[in-house]
Design a protein that fits this description.
Number of strands: 25
Radius of gyration: 26 Å
Largest sheet: 8 strands, antiparallel
Shape: globular
Helix content: 25-40%
Length: 692
């Protein structure tokens, strides 16, 4: 198989470009162009109090891979203007970021190469290797450690050495408490210096100060040798261990024992395994393959079986000017990321669902506080406890009901696609039945049928509406899933569920489904195609004529919506359902490709040419997940269900103009590897892989 397409190296980033994003699903780093300078770090499940809104939010942790250099006592951090020839290259095949620059001081020229990666095999570890070449003799100082400048909160304790042991196994550990004392994170690191006559150099390890914990090596260097400083840091949040700094120290000590080269090789092997699920676009030009590879990389790098706190709409990425979702877990993850991960990294998909399942009691409490039965999942779920964390006054949380339906649907899809019987019984059924009970308490029975009043739907308008189409359509799908799975398990199914599913009111006009009761094209966000999301990916059944009328009504308004987040990425797959291949290609370009920024193929939340006033915020997982869902499920017309995977194809494949086929050598279906071939004009085929 040909390797994935990595983005081109960057030598001169724009002023607003986001830094590189390095992640493994438990730890996410923003690595600056000069990578020894502290960036920003997010740890899954680690939370603190937002300084402005005073709500629980994902909190930046101490930065785990800070460094510095000095030539004859002249420090790089004091002379940033002496840095030049900056270049960064990101290898998507291995998740490795390589940065190069030159530092000049005292008449000497120091060439620096910095390798940075987050280990997938050992997910508490982030690793960095600094390789140095000097053009003449000098005293060279090299420093590495942990920086606390970007982390709000306080240090509770730190250690140098290993208590009770004569020989230190690590350089140091730190226990950090977030603002508001909402969470703790432990960090521990070790360093090693090699090259030239450095074997006997004793490092300096001063106490914690206002900058952090650092280790410094000072030695005589010459032009005949290359020098290498390696650092590995372990980070552990308190939601997985009551003494996270101790656990981080254990993991760092293990990393020292295993060695940098072994950890790097294992990380590369883990990525080799993931890339067996690469999505190949046969006949499409290279630009589309590069976009598919980038989306595949960023989604997979942000999810892991160890993702105890789920992930946010930006994964584990943040930057100074786009904190407005606060790292909360929102419906976008279940609607756009989980379906893709279920097929390409099912252990990570289950970890994201496990977050919701662990907090099912919080959803039940949330429903009771709203005067309802069952479980109502929060609109903005807090990273540590799964409680409602929307900024005050919490307007969206009053009426954004469909999040519970998105969560429940993801549980049903995972159960169907994996065939995991224990998951279906122990996790999917409790969630689906609780959400079905919530639906029964949420609807109103009228002469028109069952209605859901004062709901927001997907378009976040100023005022709620009655019978938001996507909410009602999704409720029918979830009730049908709950009935089906309950009956399969031999459970007692509330007869009201079937009655509501069969009698749910839908806002219709001339046969097609419109966004809500009283809908007008000229209203606020009137072009939002929420009924289309009910058709796919939720697979709500309409008569073929009504489906086509609904598709064409909203596709005709596409230009008024495209550029907005989330649903823009789905337009290509919706257009394909009308049979118009040229329209499918155009809308895929307008609704996805033009969201890409030039630096390492990050997909932004808003299309920058349509919304230049919006911050450069990415990588945005609803957009990428929508694109990947289109490639794996939408264009192939695959609908996972209880029947055999070979029967999941519901209609012949219609691909964008010029595309011949979508092929994947390995998807995970029912616990076994299967190959997907979705050739234009033919039914998609899923076939078992004999030798993976």
């Amino acid at each position: 198989m040909s390797p994935p397409i990595s983005p081109p190296p960057v030598t001169d980033a724009g002023d607003r470009d986001l830094p590189a994003y390095v992640c493994n699903g438990l730890i996410g780093l923003r690595v600056r162009r000069q990578p020894l300078q502290a960036g920003m770090a997010i740890v899954s499940g680690y939370a603190g109090e937002d300084p402005e809104r005073r709500i629980e939010a994902a909190a930046p942790a101490p930065y785990p891979l800070v460094g510095d250099l000095a030539i004859d006592g002249a420090w790089l951090s004091d002379l940033p203007d002496r840095v030049g020839d900056l270049e960064q290259a990101y290898d998507f095949a291995s998740g490795e970021l390589t940065s190069r620059f030159v530092f000049q001081a005292g008449g000497r020229r120091l060439a620096c190469t910095v390798l940075t990666f987050a280990s997938r095999e050992d997910p508490t570890l982030v690793c960095q290797e600094i390789t140095l070449e000097i053009d003449g003799p000098c005293e060279l100082s090299v420093r590495a450690g942990l920086a606390i400048a970007e982390a709000s909160g306080r240090a509770l304790r730190f250690l140098r050495g290993t208590p009770g042991e004569a020989q230190a196994t690590i350089d140091g550990s730190l226990l950090w408490e977030s603002a508001g004392a909402l969470g703790q994170v432990g960090l521990a690191y070790f360093t090693e210096l090699t090259g030239g006559a450095t074997a006997e150099v004793e490092p300096e390890r001063p106490a914690l100060d206002g900058k952090g914990l650092v280790t410094t090596y000072v030695f005589r260097a010459d032009a005949r040798s290359s020098y290498r400083l390696r650092q590995i840091t372990s980070l552990a949040p308190s939601i997985v261990h009551s003494r996270p700094d101790d656990q981080a120290a254990r993991m760092a000590a293990k990393a020292q024992h295993d060695g940098f080269d072994v950890i790097r090789a294992e990380n590369r092997a883990a990525w080799d395994e993931l890339w067996k699920g690469r999505i190949r676009l046969v006949g499409a030009d290279e630009r589309w393959q590069a976009l598919a590879d980038a989306a595949f990389f960023y989604l997979n790098t942000s999810a892991h079986a160890s993702s105890t706190g789920s992930t946010s709409i930006f994964g584990l990425a943040t930057w100074h000017d786009y904190h407005y979702y606060y790292g909360h877990v929102m419906w976008d993850i279940e609607a756009f990321a989980v379906p893709v991960l279920t097929l390409i990294q099912p252990q990570a998909a289950q970890a994201l669902l496990d977050y919701r399942f662990r907090h099912l009691d919080s959803a039940r409490t949330n429903a009771r506080l709203m005067g309802r039965a069952g479980a109502q999942f929060p609109w903005e779920s807090s990273p540590s406890r799964g409680e409602e964390a929307a900024p005050l006054p919490g307007t969206a949380a009053w009426h954004e009901d469909h999040v519970s339906l998105d969560v429940a649907r993801a549980f049903a899809l995972f159960a169907d696609a994996t065939g995991a019987g224990e998951f279906r019984l122990e996790k999917a059924w409790p969630v689906l039945s609780a959400v079905a009970d919530w639906i029964a308490s949420r609807v109103h029975r009228t002469a028109e049928g069952y209605e859901i009043r004062a709901s927001m739907g997907i378009a976040e308008r100023e005022q709620p509406v009655d019978n938001a189409a996507f909410t009602n359509m999704a409720a029918v799908v979830v009730l049908t899933d709950a009935i089906r799975i309950g009956e399969r398990l031999g459970r007692s199914v509330d007869p009201r569920w079937r009655e509501i599913a069969e009698g749910m009111a839908l806002p219709r006009r001339d046969g097609m489904v419109v966004s809500h009761d009283g809908y007008r094209k000229t209203e606020e966000k009137g072009a939002t195609p929420d009924p289309l999301m009910g058709l796919w990916p939720f697979n709500f059944r309409l008569d073929p004529e009504d489906e086509q009328a609904t598709l064409r009504f909203y596709l005709d308004q596409a230009d008024a919506y495209i550029g907005s987040p989330m649903l823009s990425a789905l337009y290509g797959a919706w257009a394909a359902r009308t049979g118009d291949r040229n329209l499918a290609l155009r809308l895929l370009d307008e609704g996805y490709a033009k969201f890409e920024t030039g630096r390492f193929a990050q997909i932004l939340e808003y299309r920058p040419d349509r919304f230049p006033e919006q911050p450069m915020a990415g990588p945005f997982f609803a957009n990428m997940g929508g694109f990947l869902s289109s490639l794996l499920l939408g264009f192939p017309r695959l609908e996972p269900g209880e029947d055999e995977p070979e029967t999941w194809s519901r209609a012949p494949v219609v691909l964008p103009a010029g595309w011949e086929a979508i092929e994947v050598d390995r998807l995970w279906v029912r616990g076994r590897p299967m190959r997907l071939v979705a050739r234009h004009g033919e039914p998609a085929r899923l076939t078992p892989v004999e030798h993976d």
